[in-house]
Automatic annotation (TrEMBL):
Family: Belongs to the HMBS family.
CDD domains registered for this protein in UniProt: PBP2_EcHMBS_like
Pathways per UniProt: Porphyrin-containing compound metabolism; protoporphyrin-IX biosynthesis; coproporphyrinogen-III from 5-aminolevulinate: step 2/4
Domain Porphobilinogen deaminase N-terminal positions: 4-214
Gene that this polypeptide is encoded by: hemC
Cofactor: dipyrromethane
UniProt KW keywords: Porphyrin biosynthesis, Transferase
Domain of life: Bacteria
Assembly and binders: Monomer.
One Pfam family linked to the record: Porphobil_deamC
Catalytic reaction list: 4 porphobilinogen + H2O = hydroxymethylbilane + 4 NH4(+)
Name under which the protein is recorded: Porphobilinogen deaminase
Length: 310
């Protein structure tokens, strides 16, 4: 019986979603009579250690994954469970994404002190988010809103509605769903209103490319349709060389009528002006991601990106 050591961040959400992944893998092991057991290994990342600075100012890519990836390379763990939106475009040599499970809700949500929608926020309302992408789109919608950074785990950010005078905080629906905290959601922000982060709502199961035994199991957990969507979004991210420092968003979906893959991408200035959005259709996810990125670059996204990168 092989013990698979599973690396994860130590937040309540990370541990919960890792537990959910392990539960599904245990079910598959039982179904296919595979000789694996699993144990969780908590790892602290740079993004977890630095909580008094916004992500955009911490700098670098992979703020929530680098230490975990190093543990994979050092073979102190065998696989890792990440939120896909935390994954940089490039993976270290020797590591691969062995499975992408079925995605949950990719939208952003508002949790508000009063009211039931974005329109109910009073002029000058204080809204908390650590995401430049969310801040950019909210400022484009409501220039009167005061956007202030808020870091910490989900529960900490929600509590700041009371402790730090926020009128609302913006969070990913996926995390609240995984924690069974849907009742805390005031309203969902439609993707047409707030384009999600690349990979939002999806998980990445990362492992060493040479571990064929583990990969054979992960293949049974992989959800190909989610993977196609995520591949398009990540190709878009890679072409723009994006990270936490830049307001970039993208989501892929199947067109209901044609069945063709559609990708919508965004690049925006942090203050919400300009905001550039493009959507295209295609069959090949990587080509589609590159094409949407090229379309935005032609529209002036390169100027926004150059200015933000200094």
């Amino acid at each position: 019986m092989r013990v698979i050591k599973v690396g994860t961040r130590q937040s309540a959400l990370a541990l919960t979603q890792t537990g959910q992944v392990i539960h599904e893998l245990e079910r598959l092991c039982e179904e296919y009579n595979l000789p694996f057991t699993f144990e969780t290994h908590k790892i602290v990342t740079k993004g977890d250690r630095i909580l008094d600075v916004t992500l955009s100012k911490v700098g670098g890519k992979g703020l929530f994954v680098k230490e975990i990836e190093q543990a994979l390379l050092d073979q102190t763990i065998d696989m890792a469970v990440h939120s896909m939106k935390d994954m940089p475009w490039e993976l270290p040599e020797g590591l691969i994404i062995g499975a992408i499970p079925k995605r949950v809700d990719s939208r952003d949500v508002l949790i508000m002190k009063c009211g039931t929608s974005l329109d109910d926020l009073p002029p000058g309302a204080k809204v908390g988010t650590s995401s430049l992408r969310r801040a950019s789109q909210l400022q484009a919608l409501r220039k009167d809103l005061v956007i202030e950074p808020v870091r910490g785990n989900i529960d900490t950010r929600i509590k700041k509605l009371e402790t730090e005078g926020f009128d609302a905080v913006v969070l990913a629906a996926a995390g609240l769903h995984r924690m069974n905290w849907e009742d805390r959601i005031t309203c969902y922000l439609p993707k047409e209103v707030c384009i999600p982060a690349v990979g939002q709502g999806a998980l990445a199961i990362e492992c060493r490319g040479e571990d064929q035994e583990l990969l054979a199991l992960l293949t049974k957990y992989h959800h190909e349709e989610t993977a196609l969507h995520v591949r398009a979004e990540r190709a878009f991210l890679g072409k723009l060389n994006g990270g936490c420092q830049i307001p970039i968003g993208a989501y892929a979906e199947r067109d209901e009528e044609s069945g063709v893959l559609k990708l919508t991408g965004l690049v925006g200035a942090p203050e919400g002006d300009p905001i550039l959005i493009a959507a295209m259709y295609g069959e090949d996810p990587e080509q589609l991601g590159n094409a949407v990125a090229d379309k935005l670059l032609e529209a002036g996204a390169d100027q926004i990106l150059d200015r933000l990168r200094g």
